[in-house]
Design brief:
about 375 residues, alpha/beta, TIM Barrel, three-stranded antiparallel beta sheet
Length: about 375
């Protein structure tokens, strides 16, 4: 099937910053950008059902190539007709290439120009992942947006290591595109820009990756331990060189404040595991910063997490009750906190889109961060 099912349209550009509002069109529906994408690593956004994720307003979720390859495996996914049918998710999906997880493993055995040899974190089995194998796995998963296989450089990294990883990523990106030509199966393919925090490497990576020809470009290798100010400086230096006609995806970045910092610099897509990860430990977002629901201060509180939020947790339960659930180790606590955090992020991004369109982005940013960061800076 070579029919093209993917397009991106920029509908308005902010007069205040590099941010823009657009629409990504896929075979399973439209995605308004900028967008926050909940992460469903193993085919599930942790503790939430697909219906709850839809109710939270998600138009696209992520799946993880590495984890889905190991379990349940592509044979099972193909048996069920792909991950959408398997998990009953009828909206768009993006899959990462598995590169970040592979390069994060403690038992990473060997990196060559051909691919990467490593040991499974499940049973220690020796595995080999190449650009072509990553493409095959992602086609089996069936995502609307696939990512090229790249080498994610750690931080800190000297310039020699950063260059080697960037150049290898460029070579692998070309092999991914050759294995998955434009329009194949109706699945788009995004390239990934690397180069650590070395601006000249980032600019070279943009040129080399864009030349191959992709449906979108992602910024990889940030939010891997570097100070946030350095991440922002890197984006400031590289974003003017990113193609304007392609969606821009900042991988693995997505705290509430990061949405503003990224959108302001022209980022269209964000993902992060943080909203559900911190929720499982009792931390929830509010307009005045994160709060810890397990704290004694909420024992007798009858107020919701956020009175301005329309999620089930805020419409139904008090902070006092949710604190009780966490202390009693009830699963409902994890589910309600996760649902709230995902809803908060998606609702906030909707407000950001509206502000970009009507010219009030800087006012929204100033007002939100003044309220939200006051508590965060005390943490």
């Amino acid at each position: 099937m070579n029919e093209r099912f993917f397009s991106f349209t920029v509908e308005s550009e902010s007069s205040e910053c590099w941010g823009r509002v657009g629409t990504i069109r896929t075979r399973r529906g439209e995605i308004r950008t900028p967008v926050f994408m909940p992460v469903g690593t193993c085919g599930s956004v942790k503790t939430l059902s697909p219906e709850e994720v839809r109710t939270a307003g998600a138009t696209i979720i992520l799946g993880n190539t590495y984890h889905l390859w190991l379990r349940p495996g592509t044979e099972i996914l193909e048996h069920f007709g792909g991950l959408h049918a398997f998990m009953k998710w009828d909206r768009p999906m993006l899959t990462d290439s598995g590169g970040f997880q592979v390069f994060s493993l403690k038992k990473l055995n060997k990196i060559t120009d051909e691919g990467v040899q490593f040991a499974s974190h499940l049973d220690g089995a020796k595995l080999w992942l190449t650009p072509e194998e990553s493409m095959r796995i992602q086609r089996s998963i069936g995502a609307e947006i696939m990512m090229v296989f790249d080498e994610c450089c750690p931080w800190p990294a000297d310039e020699k290591l950063a260059r080697e990883a960037m150049e290898r990523s460029a070579r692998w990106a070309k092999r991914c595109r050759e294995d998955h030509p434009s329009g194949r199966n109706g699945q788009a393919l995004f390239g990934i820009v690397q180069g650590s925090t070395y601006l000249h490497l980032r600019k070279e990576s943009i040129a080399r990756t864009a030349e191959i020809g992709f449906d979108g470009l992602a910024v990889g290798g940030l939010s891997v331990g570097e100070p946030k100010a350095l991440m922002i400086d890197t984006l400031d230096g590289m974003m003017p060189g990113m193609p304007k006609d392609l969606p821009r995806y900042l991988m693995g970045v997505g705290s509430p404040e990061d949405l503003f910092y990224g959108v302001e610099r022209g980022i269209d897509m964000f993902d992060c595991v943080m909203p559900t990860r911190i929720a499982r430990h009792g931390a929830v977002f509010t307009p005045t910063g994160r709060i810890d629901l397990t704290g004694l201060a909420w024992q007798r509180s009858d107020e919701p997490i956020d009175p301005t939020c329309d999620c089930q947790a805020c419409r139904t339960f008090s902070r006092g009750y949710l604190r009780h659930l966490f202390k009693a180790k009830e699963i409902l606590a994890l589910r309600m906190a996760s649902l709230h955090n995902i809803t908060f992020m998606i609702t906030l991004m909707g407000r950001i889109r509206a502000a970009l369109a009507d010219g009030t982005f800087q006012r929204l940013k100033s007002e939100f961060l003044a309220s939200y960061m006051a508590r965060e800076e005390k943490r």
